[in-house]
């Protein structure tokens, strides 16, 4: 291929990647006679977007073949495979590594947690503790995420103790992960304790606590915390995620008036543009209350297409309320979207 006769093939490769032509970049890389670590760095964005050549995984295998044994390459391949959902390949690289440092353990645990393999993430964490590397903040956050998924409350408590011993119990990211873990493991009191003990709170921690209260059906408490957040200081403001949490609380409790007020306040008071997720919450709220025409009006105003769950919810409400008019409109929209 002519690429090998060019004085600076890596420069050309970088320009192709800049143009986001992932497939062509991968083909060029495959034809390099002697790809080096710079070429590997250039190709990393292809993995970030899943643009892997020839059936998704081709150029990663090339990286492994031509640069096998390079520590940096091995550390980079694990998260690349994880982002593509190829945890089998990530585990193969991990198992073949001679020296597994903290970065490699964290990458593997994170990949498992983010790809729905929470139990495997916890098993890896226990292996890591036996192998020697001391868990850091990144480890704790990822393992807490896994704990929240499988209900591993005891391990979550151990991590809080370990975080306290390391002076990380008040780190906003660790504390927010603890709040989420405790709430999803059924220990709301512990979630509140962690939240109230935080000397500094950001949007992530406020959102975690509001969502925790909503998750446990504590709608009024979630609303109170929302208004408390909106008045706390000039550096913390409700955002899109905050409103998803507090609107979800209204849905669970059937608080129609409060939900309307919050939905309208997004643009009027907080300068936020409601997204599909916020409209969906309002559709659920109105449908449950039997306000079917209002729910249909919200669907028509959505900035994107409603999914089958939202439409199914409204259709179910139409059946309960025996409203054939709105029901037929929903069915027609189903057919138009080929859901």
TrEMBL record:
Residue stretches of each PPR repeat: 101-135, 171-205
GO biological process terms, semicolon-separated: RNA modification
Domain of life: Eukaryota
InterPro entries registered for this protein in UniProt: PPR_At4g14850-like_plant, PPR_rpt, TPR-like_helical_dom_sf
MF-aspect GO terms: RNA binding
Keywords, ordered alphabetically: Repeat
Name of this chain's protein: Pentacotripeptide-repeat region of PRORP domain-containing protein
Gene source species: Salix viminalis (Common osier)
Lineage per the UniProt record: Eukaryota, Viridiplantae, Streptophyta, Embryophyta, Tracheophyta
